[in-house]
Write a structure and sequence with these properties.
Blueprint (H helix, E strand, L loop, with lengths): L1 H22 L8 H9 L18 H14 L1 H21 L2 H13 L4 E4 L15 E5 L2 E12 L6 E7 L9 E7 L5 E3 L13 E12 L3 E2 L5 H35 L4 H6 L1 H30 L4 H25 L10 H9 L9 H15 L1
Parallel strand pairs: 1-4
Antiparallel strand pairs: 2-3, 3-7, 4-5, 5-8, 6-7
Helix pairs in contact: 1-3, 3-4, 3-6, 3-8, 4-5, 4-6, 6-8, 6-9, 6-10, 8-9, 9-10, 9-11
Bound molecules: acetoacetyl-coenzyme A.
Acetoacetyl-coenzyme A binds next to helix 4, helix 6 and helix 11.
Amino acid sequence: MFFKIFEEAASKRKEYRAFAENELDTGDRFPYENLAKAAKRGFMGCPIPREWGGLGESFLNYILLIEEISRVCASTGVIIAVHTSVGTYPVLLFGSDDQKSRYIPGLAGGELLGAFALTEAGAGSDAAALSTTATVVDGGYLLNGCKLFITAGGEADLYIIFATVDRSLGARGITAFLVEKRSEGLTPGKPEKKMGLNRSYTTELRMEDLFVPERNRLGKEGEGFSIAMSLLDGGRIGISAQALGLTGAALDYTIEKMKGRSEKQLKEEQELSFTLADLEARFEASRLLSYKAAVIKQSGERCTKEASMAKVFASDLAVEATTKCLNFVGVENIKSDSPLSRYFCDAKVTQIYEGSNQIQRIVIARELLKLY
Ligand code: CAA
């Protein structure tokens, strides 16, 4: 049954690959055109139900879409992954009818771009330690604080912002809010200068007496941390798909470059061909982990352990594969305009964001210990 699902997904992969290869570009600035093309095909709402304006595709097909887009442009891949997994799903899964009808059709159609604002200077891995406050005032809340490393910061139209209504409650004081781009008191910073993923703009987000009406609180007070964690389960499968795209692209590029080598040369360079063979085998294993996590997520069962395993395995492999491929194909590929150099620089952060790989290992171990 499991493999039947993959068979059905194969034709979707073909469609997504053709879209990515024929329509997407790579460049330096925010990929407005790529996102517009994705929106035109309905891909900004790929797994969102049709009744809300999405394509109603399975979570597995959405993961294949992110993989194929990331093969061509990993920045576009992460923007769409964040927009979908942790920008649109929060409203779909935890929003009131009023919130869903105000935001989901726009998000699914790509007229609105979603973003997720959890991380702070003192609360990266320890997300429950966040210090952005939400003070109850007449008709809503006043938010004060500063978020860091927000994907699509300054470009997104709707931010899911996490703040605490009472720091003494720890995780149980954290509350989620829906904040529109042009709200008074919300100021995004300039895009950070990064080693890779330069098109996906990462900024800080400052909140100074930012008023959020009560109707834009997502879920109840104190539910925000569980909301964030459950969304990150899906988000991490999306990052595994982004890493898979980078590994696949690096392997294809390297194999293409090696095609001219004779049997004799390959024999002489046996270590190189063995390494390629190992990478390819682990690439397939990594795909299976990610697709299995996606199928579990689609079934509605909790996929915390599977998502973390998929993310760790795929991101570690992306860094190793892009590094080794770069070693193989010759010095001209260290130039910054070489695709391989871009894959290498883009891969590193997949080990760090949506929960570092150390955090993923903590999550996996905790889930294991719960079982026994
Ligand atoms: N699903 C639902 N609920 C969950 C959950 C999950 N996967 N994981 C935890 N919870 C709930 C727990 O049940 C608990 O609820 P109760 O209080 O009701 O019992 C509550 O959340 C607190 O859980 P923990 O005690 O496990 O929390 P913790 O403080 O020990 O933290 C952690 C756990 C795993 C370390 C967490 O802090 C974490 O994941 N940190 C990493 C943060 C992260 O991933 N940030 C990513 C930022 S977004 C990003 O990077 C996007 C981008 O730009 C690409």
